[in-house]
Amino acid sequence: MSSKATYPDVHGRFGPFGGRYVPETLMSALHQLEQDYRRLSGDASFQRELQYYLAYYSGRPTPLYFAKRLTEALGGAKIYLKREDLNHTGAHKINNTLGQGLLAVHTGKKRVIAETGAGQHGVATATVAALFGLECTVFMGEEDMKRQALNVFRMRMLGAEVVPATSGTRTLKDATNEAIRHWVEHVEDTYYIIGSVVGPHPYPMMVRDFQRVIGDETKSQCLELEGRLPDVVIACVGGGSNAMGMFYPFLEDTSVRLVGTEAAGHGITTEKHAASIAKGRPGVLHGSLTYLLQDEYGQVTPAHSISAGLDYPGIGPEHAWLHDSGRATYVPITDDEALEAFSTLTRLEGIIPALESAHAVAEAIKEAPRMSKDQVIVVCLSGRGDKDVDQLAQRTGGK
Amino acid sequence: MERIQRAFYRRQDRAALIPFLNAGDPTFADSLALFRSVLRAGADIIEIGTPYSDPLADGPVIQNSALRSLRAGFQLPHSFELAAALRKEGDHAQVLFTYVNPLLQYSVDRFFRDAQAAGVDGVIVPDLPFEESESIRAAADAYGTALIPLVAPTSGEDRIRDICAHARGFIYCVSSLGVTGERAKMSDRVKSLVATARQYSQLPVAVGFGVSTPEQARDIATYADGVIVGSAFIRRIEKNLENESVEVSVLEECVYHFAQALVEAMAQTKRRFVQGV
After folding, report:
1. Is residue B274 part of a domain?
2. B102 vs A297: CB contact, 8 Å cut-off?
3. Which residue in the set B53, B75, B178 is minimally distant from A300, CB to CB?
4. Mean pLDDT of the region A124-137
């Protein structure tokens, strides 16, 4: 780990962001979790076990694939895809659920809960619960259960109970509220596997650490393939776990530009978007201080994105800090831009990306033509699009 | 802050009753009338809930109440208006309940300045644990408003000690694990939680979360100085609201009677706050 990357501080803060704004009932559990995590993450046998599952169960390392036809079509910088879509369960989410699942096992918990938006984190949690013999309950917004019916079915096949969140906007935000409320009641025997770099400390740090394998691999693969670091690294950001995992190992490589793509929905000048950096201001959601979509009086306003996984009114606190410090740039990508990128990548490379990841591809499509042919862009292809095919078929009438 | 102390001391025959209602549910005027009702029935401290879009510590009854209030256009400044209106009418103690984000967005200093002007004696912030509370407590102290802390069955003695050392107003003991909402049975752990809090603080100790019946209130009143009741009141209001043309007098009557029943049950214990005298 790099010498300067000392965030979060002892208060769980990334600059002013982060912290632990949760009911008192959870505070002892969070302190205990932090202690357990610090102990186990430094434990060689825990790390060996995690490495084993990442390699032999999930299939890591994932390839850094040169998207030759996409690159040629755009006529600019070389585009590489970090193929997190090739992980077991189809997205980067498993990197984190294997890590936290093992934490649950090593701390004697028999039951895990999770929130999920697109269902990818829910599936990844249900998967490790099956693998490690843990009981599993997943909270999912009622609206998202409709959008992502296939993932609901998958979770149930894996033996998980899926509980619809019927409050508020019935999406990821509300599923997270329900998961936290449930955890408050069952904190003594239940481990809460948060799926992104959000929530109270130590979650943003822990999830980042479990996801940094994306960036660590990318760095060495790029050095091997290109003999140098990439010029730009692009990743989509809802809560921001794939982006944080990708960015973190590059934080001190200042020649590498870090770009996060926020979901701009119908456009950031409309009310229907999920661009918390572009349009939000600092506030507290789900236990941490971060950029947040809210009204004048601090009521959280509904987010919108075509992709359930980005449909979230907040963003991980470390991203908020990277934005304020200027180390990373966050740009909005609309539903339409994401859909076009989805189709372009599918046709040119035969890779169907998740709608979430298509937001990152869209930014690469914008940037590559403006860059020279010897420059390198890495796109984090965080997940595969199988889960979205049904939704898109309905949208296009199957054409 | 002194009004809170007085509210606990003045009762000769029982522990203090602390009803929680969401301000603005179903309307500003109706909730004002409901607060008056519980005061008439003998409430000692009223807890004025400010509605929030994402109330993490609350169960469905208070969540829905907050939604009704938000839909009616209620926001934090209205809570101050409501508190100010009640303050003009009497010298009762009143505390404001709000999640931390509306407080931060209003800006901390402005919040406590307006709270003081509205005659608010204390503030309860359920998602502001001790670790995050320092600057907010400093502002509260500067304006003479009590930042009332919560302790939970999971807190552990070290945390309870730290929390109590910085407590103002009273200590709010969370009766059981979980969110707000009525419970058939109170956990036995709350009694020892109250005892632990007493070891580290001379302040009154009140119990809340899950108190549903006069019998439960009476049992708690045998060992605690105050009983906080929220969802049980709001469920009674909610039930009446199913009839869309319900008169506010019906709502007033139902909270009045329930408050009275709680008061009478608590009076059976003949136990009053004596600590720290």
Report:
1. no
2. yes
3. B53
4. 98
Cα gap A133→A159, rounded to integer Å: 10
pLDDT higher than 70, residue B274: no
Distance CA A250, CA B75 (A): 43
Give A276's contacts in chain B (Cβ within 8 Å).
none
Residue B174 is nearest to which of A25, A186, A283, comparing CB atoms? A25
Nearest neighbour of B132 by CB, restricted to A19, A29, A292 = A19
Nearest CA in chain B to A18: B132
Positions of A marked catalytic: 93, 115, 382
Bond prior to A61 in cis (omega within 30° of 0): yes
Residue B168 lies in a domain: yes
Identify the CA nearest to A95 among candidates A233, A201, A217, A191: A217
Option in A28, A181, A299 nearest B70 (CB): A299
Residue B142 inside a domain? The answer is: yes
Cβ of A168 and B101 within 8 Å? Answer: no
Beta carbons of B56 and A180 less than 8 Å apart: yes
ipTM of the shown complex: 0.95
**Domain limits for position B146:** 2-267
pLDDT for the residue numbered B275:
59
B240–A contact, CB cutoff 8 A = no
Round the CA-based radius of gyration of chain A to a whole number and report it: 19
Q: What is the pTM of this model?
A: 0.96
Q: Do A188 and B154 touch (CB under 8 A)?
A: yes
| A218-266 tens-digit pLDDT | 999 999 999 999 999 999 999 999 999 999 999 999 999 999 999 999 9
Three-state secondary structure readout of chain A: CCCCCCCCCCCCEECCEECCCCCHHHHHHHHHHHHHHHHHHCCHHHHHHHHHHHHHHCCCCCCEEECHHHHHHHCCCEEEEEEHHHCHHHECHHHHHHHHHHHHHHCCCCEEEEEECCCHHHHHHHHHHHHHCCEEEEEEEHHHHHHCHHHHHHHHHCCCEEEEECCCCCCHHHHHHHHHHHHHHHCCCEEECCCCCCCCCCHHHHHHHHHCHHHHHHHHHHHHHHCCCCCEEEEEECCCHHHHHHHHHHCCCCCCEEEEEEEEECCCCCCCCCCHHHHCEEEEECCEEEEECECCCCCECCCCCCCHHHCCCCCCHHHHHHHHHCCEEEEEEEHHHHHHHHHHHHHHHCCCECHHHHHHHHHHHHHHHHCCCCCEEEEEECEEHHHHHHHHHHHHCCC
**B70 pLDDT above the threshold of 70:** yes
**pLDDT (tens digit, 9 = 90+) per residue, A283-332?**
999 999 999 999 999 999 999 999 989 999 999 999 999 999 999 999 99
Q: Distance between CA A179 and CA A191 in Å, rounded?
A: 11
Query: Is B276 a member of any domain?
Result: no
Closest by CA to B193, choosing from B213, B211, B207, B210, is B207
Q: Determine the distance in angstroms separating the CA of B243 from the nearest CA of chain A, rounded to an integer.
A: 22
CATH label of the domain that carries residue B30: 3.20.20.70
- Nearest-Cα distance to chain A for B77, in Å, is 9
Contact A332, A268 (CB under 8 A): yes
Q: Which residues on chain A are in Cβ contact (under 8 Å) with B174?
A: 23-25
Number of folded domains in chain B? 1
* Chain-chain contact of B126 with A23 (C-beta, under 8 angstroms): yes
> Could B56 and A177 be called an inter-chain contact, meaning their C-beta atoms sit closer than 8 Å?
yes
Whether residue B26 has a cis bond before it, omega within 30° of 0: yes
Q: Does the beta carbon of A177 lie under 8 angstroms from any beta carbon of chain B?
A: yes
B162 lies within 8 A of chain A by CB: no
